[in-house]
Amino acid sequence: MPKSALVDFSRRMTPDHLAFGTSGNMSVRMGDTVWITPSGVPFDEVGEEDLAAVDLATGNWVAGTARPSSELPLHRALYSARPDVQAIVHTHSEYAAVFAACGEPVLPVHYQLAPWQYSIACAEYATYGSVELARNAVAALAPDHHVVLLRNHGLLAAAATLADAYQIARDGEWLAQLYYRARLLGSPRILSPEEIAAVREQFRHYGQNPES
Ligand SMILES: [Zn+2]
């Protein structure tokens, strides 16, 4: 089940402009095991045989034949810190990476991300694949937040399901694109925390989703 979902969402990464070649990765937690996409395989070629399973606590390989993504420490650290997180999507998507390159947060010029959080913070830089990067990302992701930028790197989305984590990654990239373009046009009007809270209440009250 987690394997087929990982393959399905991996195949969407390139068409949805969330990945270029082999950049990025995603995983699902199943109890004490983490299923994760492989290192060095383009997303549009990932099959179930390419997925790797590791023990969450030790990082030891427990199933699969492919080498796990180099960002495994990032995934393990986030699962360990956040019991509510069951799936993670990491991208180098273009507009999120632009803000990450400047070390700037993505501010809410639209309510698309309102059901999840107010704005997208940016974690301090550390070398990809390092334990320090994992530590910085966990520190920058507020306890009730689901998406964060990694400075000079990309975006990290986390949720209770892979479908939600994937949608949050798409929403984050879309918001970054909109904010970038609004800044080119003029002076974007940033929604206030109260305005975002009102949207969140509206979604909750009417049972609508952020696509509405
Ligand atoms: Zn990366």
- List how many beta strands DSSP finds: 8
The amount of beta strand, in percent, is 15-25%
Class by SSE composition: alpha+beta
Order of helices and strands: HEEEEHEHEHEEHH
Major sheet: order of its strands? 4-3-2-1-5-8-7-6
Identify low-pLDDT runs: none
- The gross shape turns out to be globular
Distance between the termini: 29 Å
CATH fold node name: L-fuculose-1-phosphate Aldolase
Biggest β-sheet description: 8 strands, mixed
- Number of separate structural domains: 1
Bound molecules: zinc ion
What is the CA-atom radius of gyration, in angstroms? Answer: 17 Å
| Name of the CATH superfamily | Class II aldolase/adducin N-terminal domain
CATH architecture type: 3-Layer(aba) Sandwich
- In CATH, what is the class? Alpha Beta
H/I helix tally: 6
Q: If you average the pLDDT, what whole number results?
A: 94
Helix content percent band: 25-40%
Describe it for me?
- The chain is of the alpha+beta class and 212 residues long.
- It has a single domain (2-206), classed as Class II aldolase/adducin N-terminal domain (L-fuculose-1-phosphate Aldolase, 3-Layer(aba) Sandwich), CATH 3.40.225.
- Helix content is 37%, strand content 16%.
- The protein has 6 helices and 8 strands.
- It has helices at 2-13, 72-81, 94-102, 131-140, 162-185, 193-206; strands at residues 25-30, 33-36, 52-55, 61-63, 87-91, 122-123, 147-150, 154-159.
- The protein has an 8-stranded mixed sheet, with helices on both faces.
- Strand 1 (25-30) and strand 2 (33-36) form a beta hairpin.
- Helix 2 (72-81) runs parallel beside helix 4 (131-140).
- The chain is globular.
- It starts with a helix and ends in a 6-residue tail after the last helix.
- The model has no long low-confidence stretch (mean pLDDT 94).
- It binds zinc ion.
